[in-house]
Task: inverse folding
C-alpha cells in the first residue's frame, strides 16, 4: 500500500503510525483469517475502495455439490409429496443455463408431483434436498405423477445442476424484456449488464443485437460488479447515424449499423460498483439519456491484481484513479454517480415482484419516445442517368 496506492500521500494518513497502532494485535493471531482481519482493518484506514485482502494458507473443507432441479418445490400438506410449482426457463445449449427438467426427453411439467428420488419416497423425507446431496451433474431417477399418488406414476432420469442462480437470473432478465415490451407495444428494448468483464460483454452481445429493431432502449447496470469494458459498452451506445443505406428488395437501414436510434435510459443502484460507477459517469458525460435509480457505490480507484504472496493469499493496491477533464477534482471515488431521477426499490415490494425503478424507466422512456419518435425515411427518387 505504501508503495503503490495512487496517492503518494496515502490520503494524508500517517502510515507508520497506523502500522504501529495495529502491530500489537499480531500477538493474538492464531489463524490466517485473524491476520486477514487485522490487515483488512489497517488498510481500511485509507478510506479507499478496492483495498482487498484474503486467501492464503489455511484449511478449506471440501464442498459437496447439492443437486438442484431448476424448479420451485412445495410440499403438499395432505400427501407429504413435493409438487413442482415452477420450472425455471433455460437455454440448454449453454451448460450454465441448463434447466434440468427441460432437458430433451424429460417428461415433467409444472404441477407434477415428485413421489420418489432414486427409489426413496419423498413423503417420508424431512427434506427432499437431503436426497440430492452429492448428486449435481449425476443421473437421478425421479418418480413423477400428475397427482400425489402411486397409481399412474412414471420414472424420469434427470441430471441435476449444481447452481440455479444463472437460471433465476435468466428468468429475471427475460421477465424484464417481456414486461417492457408489453408496456411499450414492443417499441423499447432492454439489456442488463451484470459486470464489466467477459460475462457482462457476453450478456450485452446476447441481448443488445437481437433488439436493434427497437425504437428505444433501457440499459440496466444495477448490481454491476465492475471490470474494465465500460468504454466498449458506451462506444456502442454512442454510435450516431452518418447516412442511410438500402439494398434491392431490402429495407432502409442506418449506417453505421448496430444502433438503437431512439432514446436511452440507464438504471443504476447502490450496487453498481467500480466500472459500474464509471459506465454511469460516461453515460451522463456523453448525454445519452437520463439515469434512474440510486447513487452508485463510489469505488473507482483501480487495481491491477495482487503481487505474489508466499502463502498464496492476495492484497490489492488501488493504483490509479480519475479526475475530471477540467483537472479540478477527483471524481466518483467515495461518492459514486447520483442519478437524475432517484427511485429506491423497497425490499418488500421488490420481493413481491414490484420493480419501482424499472417501472419509472418505462414511464420516462415512453415520454421520451413521444417527444422523439423514431422515423425511418423513404429513399429519395432514384437517379435517372438516362437524362
Result:
Amino acid at each position: 500500500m505504501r508503495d503503490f496506492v495512487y496517492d503518494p500521500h496515502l490520503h494524508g494518513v500517517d502510515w507508520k503510525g497506523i502500522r504501529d497502532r495495529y502491530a500489537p494485535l499480531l500477538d493474538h493471531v492464531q489463524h490466517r483469517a485473524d491476520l486477514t482481519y487485522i490487515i483488512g482493518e489497517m488498510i481500511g484506514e485509507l478510506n479507499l475502495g478496492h483495498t482487498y485482502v484474503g486467501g492464503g494458507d489455511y484449511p478449506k473443507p471440501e464442498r459437496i455439490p447439492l443437486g438442484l432441479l431448476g424448479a420451485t418445490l412445495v410440499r403438499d400438506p395432505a400427501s407429504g409429496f413435493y409438487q413442482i410449482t415452477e420450472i425455471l426457463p433455460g437455454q440448454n445449449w449453454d451448460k450454465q443455463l441448463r434447466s434440468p427438467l427441460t432437458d430433451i426427453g424429460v417428461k415433467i411439467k409444472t404441477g407434477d408431483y415428485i413421489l420418489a428420488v432414486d427409489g426413496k419416497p419423498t413423503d417420508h423425507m424431512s427434506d427432499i434436498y437431503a436426497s440430492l446431496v452429492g448428486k449435481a451433474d449425476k443421473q437421478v431417477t425421479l418418480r413423477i405423477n400428475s397427482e400425489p399418488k402411486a397409481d399412474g406414476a412414471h420414472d424420469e432420469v434427470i441430471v441435476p445442476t449444481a447452481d440455479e442462480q444463472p437460471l433465476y437470473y435468466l428468468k429475471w432478465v427475460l421477465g424484464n424484456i417481456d414486461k417492457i415490451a408489453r408496456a411499450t407495444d414492443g417499441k423499447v428494448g432492454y439489456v442488463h449488464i451484470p459486470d464489466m468483464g467477459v460475462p457482462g460483454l457476453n450478456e450485452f452481445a446476447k441481448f443488445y443485437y437481437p433488439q436493434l429493431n427497437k425504437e428505444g432502449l433501457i440499459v440496466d447496470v444495477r448490481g454491476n460488479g465492475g471490470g474494465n469494458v465500460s468504454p466498449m459498452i458506451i462506444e456502442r451506445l454512442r454510435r450516431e447515424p452518418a447516412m442511410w443505406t438500402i439494398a434491392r428488395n431490402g429495407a432502409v437501414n442506418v449506417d453505421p449499423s448496430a444502433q438503437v436510434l431512439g432514446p436511452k435510459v440507464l438504471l443504476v443502484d447502490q450496487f453498481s460498483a467500480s466500472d459500474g460507477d464509471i459506465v454511469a459517469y460516461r453515460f451522463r458525460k456523453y448525454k445519452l439519456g437520463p439515469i434512474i435509480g440510486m447513487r452508485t457505490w463510489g469505488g473507482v480507484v483501480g487495481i491491477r491484481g495482487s503481487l505474489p504472496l508466499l502463502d498464496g493469499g492476495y492484497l490489492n493496491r488501488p493504483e490509479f484513479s480519475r479526475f475530471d477533464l477540467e483537472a479540478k477534482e477527483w471524481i466518483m471515488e467515495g461518492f459514486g454517480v447520483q442519478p437524475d431521477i432517484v427511485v429506491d426499490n423497497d425490499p418488500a415490494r421488490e420481493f413481491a415482484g414490484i420493480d419501482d425503478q424499472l417501472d419509472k424507466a418505462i414511464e420516462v422512456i415512453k415520454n421520451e419516445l413521444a417527444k422523439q419518435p423514431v422515423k425511418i425515411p423513404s429513399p429519395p427518387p432514384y437517379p435517372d442517368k438516362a437524362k
User: Anything to note?
Assistant: The two ends are 77 Å apart (CA to CA). The mean pLDDT is 96. The first helix runs from residue 15 to 22.
